[in-house]
Design brief:
The structure is a single chain. By secondary structure, this protein is mainly alpha-helical. The protein has 9 helices and no strands.
Length: 251
């Protein structure tokens, strides 16, 4: 390890991300945000494969899809893209206002947001489980609205928590950081492990979601996302209510 100091930094960063010590600056937030990154992969796999060419978390993609639809490219819906973007923004707005009163209690903010997500995703699971095939257009838009609200709320909370390299929904800068700040670029490699873990979480979520949609049943990606959200909500609230848990306001 002495010959390769970046290797020690890599392993330490990985440990800080998946199993941080009690006195860590961000507490349990890193592993919980990694779990939410997997949720992003699950729900975007569901939305793209089941609801048409639309994302409920990746708004960059929806802007491009909207342009494709306006250009007349087959398979893309301008209405679906606009609905997703608008409802994502609405979810961000609502949780943005909630977050103002919880800025000093980061774990509680995450727990409250995850609780809101649980309610919304539970509704999506119910709608999907009861749907017929092919899915009616009205139900498709109801799911786009519900899940976009969910992911807008999640993205806002991740932004307010400001844990480095764990945005839960956007990987462009994360992947850039892996390359630009890694040893091959002559940098120290700080937080490369965290960035790779974030990428892997979304990849695995999307892979599992796609396999379940294509080979099992369309509802299962949402069921797994719901289970993860319940676990995140319970863990975050319990951690926030523990009187021995240090509170670290967002930087």
């Amino acid at each position: 390890m002495g010959t390769y100091p970046w290797a020690s930094a890599f392993l330490a960063d990985a440990r800080q991300t998946v199993a941080p010590p009690r006195d860590a600056k961000d507490g349990l937030l890193p592993p919980l945000l990694v779990a939410l990154t997997a949720v992003t992969g699950l729900v975007d796999a569901f939305s793209y494969l089941v609801l048409g060419h639309v994302f409920v978390a990746n708004m960059t993609g929806n802007v491009v899809f909207f342009a494709f639809a306006l250009a007349g490219v087959h398979g893309f819906s301008a209405t679906a893209s606009v609905a997703a973007i608008g409802c994502f923004a609405l979810g961000a707005l609502i949780v943005g206002r909630i977050g103002r009163s919880l800025a000093a209690r980061r774990e509680l903010l995450l727990g409250v947001t995850a609780g809101i997500q649980v309610v919304l995703v539970a509704e999506a699971v119910t709608m999907t489980a009861l749907t017929s095939s092919p899915m009616p257009v009205g139900l498709r838009y109801a799911l786009i609205v519900t899940l976009s609200l969910t992911m807008g709320a999640q993205n806002t909370t991740a932004r307010k928590l400001a844990v480095p390299d764990l945005t839960t929904t956007v990987l462009t800068l994360t992947i850039t950081g892996v390359a630009a700040d890694g040893p091959l670029a002559g940098a120290t490699g700080a937080r490369v492990a965290r960035r790779l873990i974030s990428v892997a979480a979304m990849f695995l979520g999307a892979l599992v979601g796609a396999l379940l949609v294509l080979r099992v049943h369309i509802v299962y990606p949402l069921v797994i996302a719901l289970v993860i959200l319940v676990a995140v909500a319970i863990t975050a609230v319990a951690h926030a209510r523990n009187p021995r848990t240090p509170q670290h306001p967002a930087p």
